[in-house]
Design brief:
Blueprint (H helix, E strand, L loop, with lengths): L17 H7 L12 E2 L8 E2 L10 E5 L5 H13 L3 E3 L1 H4 L6 H11 L2 E6 L7 H13 L3 E5 L4 H5 L6 H4 L4 E2 L4 H16 L8
Parallel strand pairs: 3-4, 3-5, 5-6, 6-7
Antiparallel strand pairs: 1-2
Length: 198
């Protein structure tokens, strides 16, 4: 079970992302055709080398506060129903696994990140750390508002500029995002990737 004792990061202002950037590797997001593919063996979280080139699944990282796990699960379910693979720590990290390494692996491999923005999520340092990792990789970051307004987020002095500049959406209009996600997944499968929200 996820707790709010996730690895604590520093606030985005003045943070040193050097070690994190090195871990994430090249920021262009290009993946080798021989990439080890999740669930290739049919078991969650297990990997094995493929003998033939294959297109890796379109991975969406779901960032959330522990207090928002039920809503996060609904978002992850919708991600999966639109053809993508959802990484949700509550479901994808087994008991006893190296929690931080699985988080970093998924942040390195994901194609985009959605973050459930709630009043309490904004107080969690690990949320900002996950957002910072996605920002460094220059992948799409989709902010989903729940119980908070865009004005409340942008008026906070410690909200990073790269979040303030996002076109965030309210959870009640999230279907628009999932429609766009479905198109990106289809393009990814056909080998004609289209840009997501930046």
């Amino acid at each position: 079970m996820q707790s709010d004792t996730k690895p604590r990061g520093r606030n985005m202002d003045g943070a040193n992302f050097g070690p994190l950037a090195a871990w994430l590797g090249a920021a262009d997001g290009v993946r080798s055709a021989s990439l080890k593919v999740r669930r290739a063996s049919g078991k969650r979280g297990e990997r094995r080398d493929m003998t033939e080139p294959t297109q890796p699944s379109y991975l969406v990282f779901v960032s959330h506060s522990a207090q928002d796990i039920w809503v996060a699960k609904q978002l992850a379910r919708e991600v999966s129903s639109h053809g993508a693979e959802a990484f949700l720590d509550e479901s994808c990290i087994e008991t006893g696994a190296r929690f931080e390494m699985r988080i970093l692996d998924s942040l390195r491999d994901c194609h985009e990140l959605i973050v459930l923005l709630t009043p309490w999520a904004l107080e969690r340092n690990y949320i900002w750390a996950e957002l910072g990792a996605a920002w460094l990789r220059q992948i799409p970051i989709v902010g989903i508002l729940h119980g908070i307004t865009i004005g409340e987020i942008t008026s906070r002095l410690n909200t990073p500029i790269f979040i303030k500049e996002r076109d965030m959406i309210d959870i009640n209009t999230v279907d628009r995002y999932f429609s766009q996600l479905g198109r990106r997944v289809s393009a990814h499968r056909s080998g004609h990737g289209i840009g997501g929200p930046q």
